[in-house]
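Continuing from the previous page of notes. For each protein in this section, the sequence appears first, followed by its structure tokens. Read the first protein now.
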Amino acid sequence: MVQTVDAAGAAAVSDALAKLLPVVTDDKELVASADYKGHKSWWLKKEKLADMPYTPAWSADGARVLLGSSTEVVQRTLARAETKTPGIDQTEDFKRLLQLIPPLARGGILYINTPEAATWGYTVGLPLLALEMPEELRPRFAALPQDAKGLFAGLTGTLLSITGTDDGVQAVSAGSVPAAAFHYGRPTDFYSA
């Protein structure tokens, strides 16, 4: 998701992506669009993506540009926003991690669903890397488990808080991914959920 100042900004970013990608790739028919419940959605045409197993898509929703690996992902996100489904800030994982961040260090919050992100990297990122990989390394990828379910089940989310201080910026994180608290870019302390 990309957050913009207002709805006009989100619409401008979406339009710019739709116009820029065909120019960069020199393929005027790369991008398709359609309306979905009052939102204009764009996606890259699958037949134009060769061996890529995904059809990246995006749509403006208020001041946000929602990005997804397919039109279905974007549509599900739009549907959740429409039905006002509770967000991640209501999950037990988020609440627990927030308690690990000292109150004075809480500022702009970024939460990463680490198991979901790791699964996405495994199921989306690795196949994309394999497309560019030398032929002699491809058997190693073929030997990896095909189903990512359960591989990352033991991870918790990761929470990052960034706040301004009198003399700079401080970032503190907590979660299953080892991370440090930084002040002026120097590690000062480690947190683990």
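Done with the first. The second protein uses the same format. Note its length before scrolling.
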Amino acid sequence: MYRLALIYLLCFTCRTGESLQVSVPVAPWVSCYEDPPSTVWKGPKTVRTPPIMSSDGGMKAYAQIEARKGGPMGCENTVRLFVSTGDSAGFRQVFIQKDSPLNGNANSMLPIGWSPDGRWLLVQFAIENYASDFGGIDVLVYDRGKNRTIRPDVNYMIKTALKQDCWINIGSQMSFDASSRIHLRLADFIDEGDDEPQTHCFHGEEEWVLDLKKGTMHDHSGKVILFPHIHQ
């Protein structure tokens, strides 16, 4: 599982196509128990992430992770995303994910930043499960223009682009560039205890770029894959 840690991106000059200066923490581990591997019960816990503000200060966002007694593992998490865009007073909830066998019961999330054009909010969504190593990082995006949240199916995009089955690990490093495109670090998933990945779709860790405006995704070679279902 992913645990609380801080991973910092290198800083770049903000020219078109380059990553913005941003530090990227991993979504916090929130549980009714003491930190793993302890199974000592501590009780309900709620964590609110620090607000993320847009460059012009007009938009803010934060996540709330709530761990409460319940479920087959004794504890279950609910994650919520709140935004304030200046169009209305205060924060409003735009996303909620309760525990489920399919979508995780120990989830967490962390807003990463607003796009330079002010339309999108990038969120790191940590899919976790109690008493299990199954989980990973996913991408969640709030679209201010359409007032909706989307979870781009990166696994499907890569599978379609490479024309083969892929088991993907999305890295915690993710950011917008100056053109409001999302930069992701992707690699083949390696299960805990294994030396080899489950699939061979990447050469180590690779950077891929997701362009939500155009509905495209491409790798370092510049090959463009069109995905109409994420187009604006």
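What the second structure shows: The chain has one domain: 6-230. The CA atoms of residues 103 and 127 lie 7 Å apart. We return to this in next week's lecture.
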